[in-house]
Amino acid sequence: MPDTLPDIEVVGQRRRPNGTFPQRGGGSGGGGLGGEGGEHQNEVGENDPPPDQIDPCASPDTALDWNADAAAAEGKKEFERRGREEDGDDGHLSRERYAFILQREDGSLYLSSIATGGPNWVNPNEVSGQVTPFNVVGMVHNHPGGSQAPSGDDWAGFDIYYNYVLQHAGLERANQLRIYIIARDTNSTSPALQIKAYNNQSSRDSDAEGDEVNPEALPCPGPL
Amino acid sequence: MSWSVITLIALHLGWANGQDASPTIAAIANPMRPFQLAGRAPEAVIQETMGERSDQVRTLAIFRHREEGRSGPLSWRIRDTGTEGHARSAHSEDCPAVYGLILQLERIPLPRLEIRPEVDAAPANYQGRLPDIGQTHTSYALAASGFTSRNEPVFFRVSHLGSGPIRDWWMEADRQLEGCWRSEGTGGA
Fold first, then answer.
1. Above 0.90 for ipTM, yes or no?
2. Rounded distance, CA A82 to CA A89, Å?
3. Domain A60-213, CATH
4. Is residue B188 assigned to a domain?
5. Engineered SS bond to A54: which of A27, A184, A204, B52, CB 3.0-4.6 Å?
6. Contact B49 A153 (CB under 8 A)
7. Which of A190-204, B19-33, B171-185 has the lowest mean pLDDT?
8. Which pLDDT score, from 0 to 100, does residue B168 have?
9. Domain boundaries, given as residue ranges, for chain A
10. Any chain B CB within 8 A of the CB of A115?
């Protein structure tokens, strides 16, 4: 294993506190910190980006982040649908669910089958049958208890998956692995669930929350 | 049992201390001491940690007991302490499963060490299997002692995530000890 890892530039559909979600053509960042937040980076909202801005869908590297965030948003919607149908959940999720985000040969992403567990656990192995070191891009699961950061055991599991991908598919592939946590915003009176994104370079501090992913994120149009 | 779900195996070594510039995993000489009862350390400690915030910790500690001045047979106790501090015990005198579980614990299948990545000698098309980490927000740890064939004392400290031999023993202990538990205080230490 190499001693140092290259920096990873994430171009996803994310915002930091008080920021706004980027539209296509808005590049990375998703708003700013503190007083810099709250300003739209790009009001275009069309598929064609302005000529001076990066189109995240123009390159497979940036499109992966964009599409992975969209897959996480799709996972949230599917978790909520199942929660409503199976548990009568309304605005929250009473049981933990888990899915892998996998990549097809054409570069497009899809969700694995979804595992359903209990109020504070779920078994990823139940839905890992399609996972290979070459197709896994990330994992998404929810925390019914409201913790928006990965637990210590979530990070331990992430490291095991990371090493699995690293050994078989190499560093570049391993560094693409990300983990999404869906939980209610405990700092808000709103019951809305949020999606937070983390990767190998994220802080492991239990208080360090990742960037928020747009819950309405959509993938790039067409195959990559 | 996959090698990668075993996050720590150490012989005569302590838990990792990731805060130090030069971390030592021999930080705690005897991991059983914090769990002593009436001045005696347990013979083994098994722990389950659960929850999104890893805040639900349950400990089973195994004690050997012989009354002072008596040469009769030993008795054994498994003491269960939960997150909220409630304690209860199962005693071998009235619960035969206690001794059987201790034997089972001695015989849990410990995996061998794997230092080399499994792909080192593998053909290019070998993908391996995704390691089974078991259920989320769950981990198990075991601390116990033993001896080598040359009478050298060793400490075993093994931990894994939500799937593995300690969890298997834990689930079996939960099943077999149901109905054996006495609230702390009614049976004495």
1. no
2. 9
3. 3.40.140
4. no
5. A27
6. yes
7. B19-33
8. 98
9. 60-213
10. no
pLDDT at A56 over 50: yes
To the question of pTM greater than 0.95 for the whole model, the response is: no
Q: How many CB pairs under 8 A join A and B?
A: 92
Q: Which of A141, A85, A148 is nearest to A114 (CA)?
A: A141
Domain of residue B98 covers 3-13+28-112+134-183
- Residue B96 forms part of a structural domain: yes
Window A:78-97, CB contacts with B under 8 Å: 96
Nearest-neighbour CA in chain A from B182: distance (Å): 28
- Which letter does DSSP use for residue A198 in this model? E
Rg (CA), chain B: 18
- Nearest CA of chain B to the CA of A27: how many Å? 33
pLDDT tens for each residue of B17-49: 334 456 665 556 677 888 888 888 999 999 999
Which among A128, A141, A156 has CB closest to B130?
Answer: A128
